[in-house]
């Protein structure tokens, strides 16, 4: 029996939307952060050369989840408390090896189709944002910008109450949480990727194979010509340089099931950025 096109489309809609590849809408890092990255890397290189080991204090980040749905239905982004609990557990599992943990301080729920579909985002954030500049605010919406799975802001030095202060945080496709419909990016690790940006990490493929570019300013992530799609084990997009592509790294574009790690140098950079940009404002 042949199905009418409209019937077939309806059935496909009930199965949830899939993405062919990961897309992150985080903008390029600002010049101020790039300059600080170069400075921190030079300091880290000097300590390594001197054989100095620096211990990093554990970090606990207060986090707020904001569910901004287009209606009261799950399909329109009204994800459940259980899904949110699973999401914070994924974040804690992924960051725990690097002495970073998240305390879910609270959750807000708002039904607003305009905000949920990526309009008036600054107005949304100004109305919903909680805490100081050390507080992580994650907004789960129906439609993040540019058909992406989400984006996050890099750390900076905004004045409290300024536009940049309110803009701080991450906007995520609500269906990327564990149990969401956005396979193969529905195990909760889109949040891990984006929060990596919030801590000041760049994509592992930044700068491509150009060794003079600085890349992601991380020594233990091999150079990578372009972002990964899927989970191509053994991929080597810069064959003339040492190391295979870091396809299991949270800051690549691999599928959620492929994600496994931050490197030690990425962990150190997150710690350094936290101390420099955010820790002083924590109350």
UniProtKB/TrEMBL annotation:
GO biological process, one term: proteolysis
SUPFAM superfamilies (alphabetical): Metalloproteases ('zincins'), catalytic domain
CDD domains the record matches: ZnMc_pappalysin_like
InterPro entries membership: MetalloPept_cat_dom_sf, Peptidase_M43
A Pfam family hit: Peptidase_M43
Keywords associated with the record: Disulfide bond, Hydrolase, Metal-binding, Metalloprotease, Protease, Signal, Zinc
Record-annotated Peptidase M43 pregnancy-associated plasma-A domain positions: 187-272
GO molecular function: metal ion binding; metallopeptidase activity
Cleavable signal peptide: 1-20
Family listed: Belongs to the peptidase M43B family.
Name this protein carries in UniProt: Metalloprotease
Source organism: Botryosphaeria dothidea
């Amino acid at each position: 029996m042949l199905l009418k096109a409209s019937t077939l489309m309806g059935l496909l809609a009930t199965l949830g939307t899939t993405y062919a590849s990961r897309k992150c809408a985080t903008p390029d890092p600002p010049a101020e952060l790039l300059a600080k990255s170069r400075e921190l890397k030079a300091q880290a290189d000097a300590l390594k050369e001197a054989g100095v080991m620096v211990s990093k204090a554990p970090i606990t980040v207060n986090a707020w989840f904001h569910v901004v749905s287009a209606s009261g239905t799950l399909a329109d982004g009204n994800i459940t408390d259980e899904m949110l609990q699973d999401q914070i557990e994924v974040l804690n599992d992924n960051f725990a090896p690097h002495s970073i943990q998240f305390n879910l301080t609270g959750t807000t729920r708002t039904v607003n189709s305009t905000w949920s579909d990526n309009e008036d985002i600054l107005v949304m954030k100004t109305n919903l944002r909680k805490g100081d500049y050390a507080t992580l605010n994650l907004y789960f919406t129906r439609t993040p910008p540019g058909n992406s799975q989400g984006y996050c802001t890099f750390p900076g030095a905004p004045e409290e109450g300024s536009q940049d202060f309110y803009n701080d945080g991450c906007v995520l496709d609500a269906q990327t949480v564990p149990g969401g419909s956005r396979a193969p990016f529905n195990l909760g690790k889109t949040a891990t990727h984006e929060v990596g940006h919030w801590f000041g990490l760049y994509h592992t493929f930044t700068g491509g194979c150009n060794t003079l570019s600085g890349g992601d300013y991380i020594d233990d992530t091999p150079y990578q010509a372009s972002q990964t799609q899927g989970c191509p084990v053994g991929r080597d997009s810069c064959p003339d340089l040492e190391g295979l592509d870091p396809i299991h790294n949270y800051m690549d574009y691999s599928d959620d099931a492929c994600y496994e790690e931050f490197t030690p140098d990425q962990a150190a950079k997150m710690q350094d950025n936290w101390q420099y940009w955010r820790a002083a404002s924590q109350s």
